[in-house]
Amino acid sequence: MRVIIIGCGRVGSHLANVLSAERHDVVIIDSNSQSFRRLSREFNGRMLTGVGFDRDILQKADVEGADALAATTDSDNVNIVSAVTAKDVFHVPHVVARVYDPQVAEIYRREGIPTVTPTSWAANTMKTMITTPHLTAVATLGSGEVEFVAIEVTKTLAGRSLQDLVLPGESALGAVVRRGQAMLAAPNARLEFEDQVYLTVAVGAIPKLEKLLSR
């Protein structure tokens, strides 16, 4: 893939290093050339100094032929303008923006621009860890609408059916890890103490799942 990354901070540089290591064609843009020091010695992409939403800079990055663009700076405004310019002006097929303000992120999701919202993700993950220590967020899917979670089966849950953990229309069983061995989840199977159960759950349904686990 040909990928353009706006911002060479911690997130942007890490993303660039990972994509470059996987042999993708990467161009990274940052307004401060000193930021490129974060890139690994093995990084073999291109580095451009400039503002990520500047059309001339984007054209120097060959935006017309890009498969994807990620806006990762610490400025919501820069990320949003960069993403909109890439999507609406240059018709880049896959565009994603890092947006700290959850309300702003929701607006742009509705406009068809996927966003990653560290603020919401971190808050939701920490809340889950505090209120339900046996439920762990493993990954956030899409633009944050669904989470992949792991549940540690306590003595209280042991003996119950896997199906008891399902919220119809709001969660789905994935897999069970038992004594180090993974298996597909059979709804009628019984839970055993210290099982790890993996589910996909709509974020809005996590409080329901927390209540179910606490009963």
Q: Rg to the nearest angstrom?
A: 21 Å
Ranges with pLDDT <50 over ≥5 residues?
A: none
CATH architecture term of the largest domain: 3-Layer(aba) Sandwich
Q: State the shape.
A: elongated
- Counting DSSP E segments of at least 2 residues, the number of strands comes to 11
Strand order of the largest sheet: 3-2-1-4-5-6
Structural class: alpha/beta
| Oligomerization category of the chains in this entry | single chain
**What's the CATH H-level homologous superfamily of the largest domain?**
NAD(P)-binding Rossmann-like Domain
Beta-strand content: 25-35%
CATH class of the largest domain: Alpha Beta
Q: Give the overall average pLDDT.
A: 88
- The SSE string, one letter per element, is EHEEHEHEHEHEEEEEH
Outline the secondary-structure elements:
Layout: E1 2-6, H1 10-21, E2 25-30, E3 46-49, H2 55-60, E4 68-71, H3 76-89, E5 94-98, H4 102-110, E6 115-116, H5 118-131, E7 135-141, E8 146-152, E9 171-178, E10 181-184, E11 196-202, H6 206-214
